[in-house]
Design goal:
The chain is an alpha/beta fold. 45% of the residues lie in helices and 12% in strands. It has six helices and five strands; from the N terminus they run ββαβαβαβααα. The strands form two sheets. The chain has a three-stranded parallel beta sheet, sandwiched between helices. 22% of the residues are buried.
């Protein structure tokens, strides 16, 4: 399955047996979609942070993405997902296969987000930064 926002007719370019779920702003439904996925693939060539990647990982879904921008701070290559050279679709395909159904990678994805981007932790780090510690 694939989901997201698109201005083009997506169904005609998806691989066979892929269902286009469309877009939702319903957080509960989005969590279900993320958690049901074996892997989250991001083809963005420019990311400041990678919120969708982090959301998928928070639901225990490893991510495969291009090694660009802030994604290098979210995905630990080979641990909780894979980062591949932008445009290298052969490596991307191998990474998707490697990430699919990998229980260790699923657990590592969730653990990375919980241990790095927890709201209380981030708030404390900001306070320390502003205090000069």
């Amino acid at each position: 399955a694939a989901f997201g926002r698109s201005s083009a007719p997506v169904g005609s370019v998806l691989p066979p047996h892929t269902t286009w779920l469309g877009y939702t702003s319903n957080d509960s439904l989005m969590r279900l979609w993320y958690a049901a996925a074996d892997v989250f693939v991001s083809l963005s060539r420019s990311e400041t942070f990678g919120l969708a990647v982090a959301e998928a990982m928070a639901c225990g879904t490893p991510a495969v993405a291009w090694k660009v921008g802030g994604l290098v701070d979210v995905v630990d290559h080979g641990v909780n997902g894979f980062l591949e050279r932008a445009g290298d679709f052969s490596s991307l395909g191998r990474a998707i296969v490697a990430a699919c159904g990998n229980p260790g990678m699923q657990q590592a994805a969730r653990a990375k987000i919980a241990s790095t981007f927890d709201a209380a932790l981030v708030a404390r780090r900001h306070l320390e930064l502003y205090a000069g510690n």
